[in-house]
Amino acid sequence: MAQIPSASNNKIENKANDLADRIEDQAGTVGGATSDDIQADLEALRRDIAALTQTVASFGSSKIRQAGEASQQYVDSARDTISSVEEEVEAYVHERPFQSLAIAAGVGYVLALLTRR
Where is 103: in which H helix or E strand? Predict the structure, then answer.
């Protein structure tokens, strides 16, 4: 499971810790709340932010996995289509070699005319 790079995790955690420290520093101005209450609220805030970080990481990794699976299906489908077209062209050339040669010469002639301009 892909996760958010550790630099992003650390950045989020550092910002959360900075915010919690600023709130803690201003706790003296809040009336009625004790230091222990504020400390408990700050710890709860830190836990919530950590849980949110994990949720965002798992959501992102599941979306990346889904996109990878969808792109693999498109690649497989294209590969199958190209393979069947290749087989059809090969069968046509084997059935009508002179007509295929004439078509190839005509296409080459038209492409030569187009590239001269």
Answer: helix 97-116
Length of the chain equals: 117
Residue 115 lies in a domain: no
Which pTM was predicted? 0.43
Say if residue 40's pLDDT is above 90.
Answer: no
Query: Which residue reads 């949720």 in tokens?
Result: 55
- Tokens 């590969």 map to which residue? 79
Nearest-5° angle of CA 93, CA 96, CA 78? 30
Confirm whether 39 is domain-assigned: yes
- Mean pLDDT estimate for the chain: 82
Q: Report the C-alpha gap between 90 and 58 in whole angstroms.
A: 48
Q: Provide the number of structural domains found in the chain.
A: 1
Instruction: Note whether residue 44 is domain-resident.
Output: yes
Residue type, 9: N
Structural domain boundaries, residue 10 = 6-83
